Structure formats: C-alpha cells, structure tokens
Amino acid sequence: MKTRLLIILVITGMIIFIMPNQFADARCAPNPDWSLAPCYDEQISSIPTDKDKSTWAKYYDYKGAEFMESK
C-alpha cells in the first residue's frame, strides 16, 4: 500500500514539474510572395493593432488595391 502511494506521488510530482515547462519555438516561414513581409514571433492577441495595420499597409500598396479587394 505504501509503495503504491509512493509511486502515485512520484508520478504526480513529475507531471506537475514537467507540464509548465513545455514551450513552442515557432519561427516565421519565408514568404515567397513578398520578401519584406513582417514577422511577429510573439503575437499577444489576434486583434490587429495600429502597428500591424501600418506594417501590412505596405503589402496592400505592393499588391495593389484591386488584388487585395478581390480577396
């Protein structure tokens, strides 16, 4: 009984220790369409900010209004 409890406690402790230490290391993929595409490694929110809009405005100018609005 004590052995079983000890095993459960050790496994639980290992799970609690390992779980918060997981991370993802994602890098931006190269953009063959536009080499100057902005890359945000850490995006806090999916809501675009004014900085995001101004950065991607260059892409809008690069592709043209007709192309962008057709999408």
List its salient traits:
mainly alpha; 3 helices; single chain; 71 residues
Give a verbal description of the structure.
By secondary structure, the chain is an all-alpha fold. It has a domain at 26-70. The protein contains three helices and no strands.
Helix count from the secondary structure assignment? 3
- Major beta-sheet overview: none
Query: Which stretches are poorly predicted, pLDDT < 50 over at least 5 residues?
Result: none
Structural class category: mainly alpha
Summarize the structure.
With 71 residues, the protein is mostly helical.
Write the layout of secondary structure elements.
Elements: H1 2-18, H2 50-63, H3 65-70
